[in-house]
Design a protein that fits this description.
- The complex is a heterodimer of chains A (282) and B (245).
- With 282 residues, chain A is α+β, with helices and mostly antiparallel strands.
- In chain A, 29% of the residues lie in helices and 32% in strands.
- Chain A has a single domain, classed as GHMP Kinase, N-terminal domain (Ribosomal Protein S5, domain 2, 2-Layer Sandwich).
- The model of chain A has no long low-confidence stretch (mean pLDDT 91).
- Chain B has one domain: 2-Layer Sandwich (Ribosomal Protein S5, domain 2), CATH 3.30.230.70.
- In chain B, 30% of the residues lie in helices and 29% in strands.
- Chain B has four helices and nine strands, in the order E-E-E-E-H-E-H-E-E-H-E-E-H.
- The radius of gyration of chain B is 18 Å and the shape is globular.
- Chain B starts with 24 loop residues before the first strand and ends with a helix.
- The chains are: A alpha+beta (282), B alpha+beta (245).
- Chains A and B meet through strand 3 and strand 6 of A and strand 3, strand 4 and strand 5 of B.
- Chain B: One of its GO terms (molecular function) is RNA binding.
Chain lengths: 282, 245
């Protein structure tokens, strides 16, 4: 369920626990829940990944299509994001119920991932001003148990790592026009460099402290949270405050520092895991 | 039939199956902890996920409440990346709405709704990867999810899509066969009583062939029911070991 009912007594219990750096499920304030990542799960896509983080489950599929570059940047391809908050995750999303959350999530993803510092957009260009690869990144929420941003960003990074774009050959035909030919060999493909792709870390302010990877219960106790996207070098590329409450500047600094630390530590094991899985598949 | 030969002279189909052979079915129950019932089912390359919530109080407008039985609410959707060509919307288009309605009718025939008056049962199905026979795969996945939720049914509901080529009925069509201009028929069956919960055929077929086709579909559905029964028993065995009974 996307919403949980937490009683006053439960809130006090959660708050006191977090004050002493011990959360309801035994974690410390900067610990993630158990995480499982699986890549190459949907064969109809060019790249896909499924991640489960506690009870949160997210499936990401990436499809590459040939499109026209944006007029402002004729030598770059681009990414499109769509987040499907399906009714499978919670009945509240039935019909158009999940659209608002879906738009909010996809707008944030757009800001975090669709720039040339995160993904090498130039490598997606086929012929300047005419053709480029458009990566349609479709996120499917299968189950929600808090911390959607982090789970989605990790899944996207894994799926981008897994993406195989067919190589193209451009040849000029008799009338001077260009012809694009896709390679038939499934192994003759281009891979994306995901080194600089950031991960999002959400920090929830609960009481006077902040926690990473909050469950729904913990989120119900928090006033507001801060999402920070961090690269493997520890560079912050985007921050946003989400939630109804307010935060004082001091705690924002503290949270940013913590987010940098946690985010930086997240990349190395993730990349190692992805490479391991890749070598096992080959 | 132009181009593709759907059934070779030796009696083999495009993917190497015999005419009456089903695709490989793999399924798991209880995949999600938050839902009341859930199941994941693969039939060949078609993959579906079904989730059941309920029976619970009526949500939204109370005017839909039925005083003598439960309301079954279905939503069918397809992941945007599930098909070869990317879909723009996961649900809400005409085909999905029709599918939702078919699912609802199928499960109204099977679930013992009279046991839960004034309540609602939600069945949500999602196609993750599509390779033909979407409707039947959804029904089979939803059956497992309803069983996982512990909601009583008259019998398993098993569905199968069959086609008719060269005077031969083909069981469990894949996408290449479905799009190859075969007249196909989708059938949902309650196998024990031999009751048909849903029957749908969109293409032309000579009336003399209808009986053979329905007969073939029923045989295929019974085959599916055996597999589903095995999955359920296997799952229960695993669960009972875990709970120490």
């Amino acid at each position: 369920m996307a919403t949980v009912q937490v009683s006053e007594a439960e809130k006090v219990y959660i708050l006191h626990g977090i004050r002493d750096d011990l959360r309801v499920d035994g974690r410390g304030c900067e610990d993630y829940r158990h995480m499982e990542i699986e890549t190459d799960v949907v064969s109809n896509t060019d790249g896909s990944a499924k991640i489960t983080l506690g009870h949160t489950a997210v499936l990401v599929g990436i499809k590459a299509e040939i499109g026209k570059p944006r007029p402002m940047v004729p030598d770059e391809g681009y990414l499109e994001f769509f987040v499907d908050c399906s009714a499978n995750a919670t009945p509240e999303f039935e019909g158009r119920g999940g659209e608002e959350l879906g738009t909010e999530l996809s707008n944030t993803l757009y800001k975090v991932f669709n720039n040339k510092r995160s993904v090498d957009l130039k490598s997606l260009c086929i012929s300047e001003g005419e053709h480029c690869w458009v990566l349609y990144v479709d996120v499917l929420l299968l189950q929600c148990d808090g911390n959607l941003y982090d789970a989605i960003s990790i899944a996207i990074k894994a799926a981008l790592f897994n993406t195989k774009i067919p190589r193209v050959q451009i040849s000029a035909d008799d009338e001077g026009g260009k012809e694009i030919e896709l390679s038939d060999d499934p192994y003759d493909c281009m891979r994306l460099n995901v080194e600089n792709v950031p991960c999002i870390v959400t920090l929830c302010k609960v009481g006077h402290r902040h926690v990473v990877d909050a469950t729904l219960q913990e989120k119900a106790c928090s006033v507001a949270s801060l999402i920070i996207s961090v690269t493997h070098k520890g560079t912050v590329t985007c921050t946003r405050k989400v939630g109804g409450g307010s935060l004082d500047p001091e705690s924002i600094f503290e949270m940013t520092e913590a987010g940098k630390r946690v985010g930086k530590a997240l990349h190395t094991p993730l990349m190692k895991l992805l490479q391991e899985e890749e070598s096992r598949g080959a | 039939m132009a181009g593709l030969e759907l059934l070779s002279d030796q009696g083999y189909r495009l993917d190497g199956r015999k005419a009456t052979e089903l695709r490989k079915v793999q399924a798991r129950m209880g995949v999600f902890a938050q839902a009341d019932g859930s199941a994941y089912l693969e039939q060949g390359n078609t993959k579906a996920l079904a989730v059941v919530y309920g029976p619970h109080e009526m949500r939204g407008s109370r005017s839909r409440t039925l005083h003598d039985r439960a309301v079954i609410n279905c939503q069918y959707s397809m992941a945007t990346f599930s098909t070869a060509e990317r879909k723009r919307r996961p649900h809400g288009d005409r085909k999905s709405t029709e599918m939702s309605l078919h699912l609802k009718q199928t499960f109204e025939a099977a679930v013992m709704t009279q046991l839960y008056p004034r309540s609602q049962i939600d069945i949500y199905v999602k196609i993750l990867q599509s390779d033909g026979g979407n409707y039947s795969v959804c029904v089979n996945a939803a059956t497992l999810a309803v069983i996982d939720a512990g909601i009583p049914m008259r019998d398993y509901v098993c569905a199968c899509t069959v086609g008719f080529v060269d005077e031969t009925p083909l069981a469990d069509l894949c996408y290449a066969e479905e799009s190859g201009g075969v007249s196909s028929l989708a059938l949902a069956l309650l196998p024990r009583g031999g009751q048909i919960a849903l029957l749908q055929m969109d293409a032309r077929l000579h009336q003399d062939h209808l009986e053979t086709l329905i007969e073939a579909a029923m045989t295929a559905c019974k085959g599916v029911s055996k597999v589903l029964d095995e999955v359920v028993r296997q799952h229960l065995q695993e669960v009972s070991v875990l709970t120490g009974e």
